Amino acid sequence: MAITISIAEKAFDHAAAIERFSSAVGDAGAIVTFSGNVRGEGGSVKALHLEQFPGVTERSIRDIVDKAINRWTLDEVLVIHRVGTMVPGEAIVLVCTASAHRRDAFEAADFLMDYLKTKAYFWKKEVTKSGETWIEPRGVDYADAARWERV
Amino acid sequence: MARLLFFGKLSDLAGGREQMVTLQPGVDTVEGLIAQIADGDKPLATALTHSTNRFAVNETIADLDGAITDGDEIAFLPPVSGG
Questions:
Q1: pTM, full prediction
Q2: How close does chain A come to B70, measured CA to CA in Å?
Q3: Rounded Cα gap, residues A92 and A38, in angstroms
Q4: Mean pLDDT of the residues in chain A
Q5: Could you say which of B8, B56, B59 has the minimum Cβ distance to residue A123?
Q6: If you write DSSP's letter for every residue of A62-126 in order, what string do you get?
């Protein structure tokens, strides 16, 4: 079972990363891929800055991936997350999961994104015509992450 | 000296990512450090105590009562926004 976690300081070729993931997967019947891109919000967003806490951020992603592999049966997991400056249309994050069956692959990818958005140590700043604003998760992001809590 | 790191919006308030400070006698918790900061910069200290913030002492997540000592690195982490 292979886990790849990568924090990319520059734009990464997400098609090539998906291709590499798919060819490494072997026998798994189900591959799920999620790409999160910078939204332009109709032209008002000029750029996004994403910062990390070197070492701590990568470990926080590792913790999240560990939770996923303990909860679902996965053959392979890939997380690539950008830091630095990005413009609309660029990929911020790529999550790939592979499993024998689709339920595990879908749910694990969904979980990984919910937790990356609310628990991984990144901080996002949006640059618009009127200035720069630090972003916080929306209520729906916290609600989504809460879905995975078990009694 | 202790190294202080401020992430996200807290770095704007702190005037930068990193500061070196001398811990005053008796300051041995994160909470104590924030009180020390309040002496010189009340708005920053108020922002640091917001309940949505987290702290890290030498890269390990800590609470307000987390122990600190000379030579430590204390990071102030506001609400995260990745993904």
A1: 0.93
A2: 21
A3: 6
A4: 93
A5: B8
A6: HHHHHHHHHHS--SEEEEEEE-EEE-TTSEEEEEEEEESSHHHHHHHHHHHHHHHHHTSSEEEEE
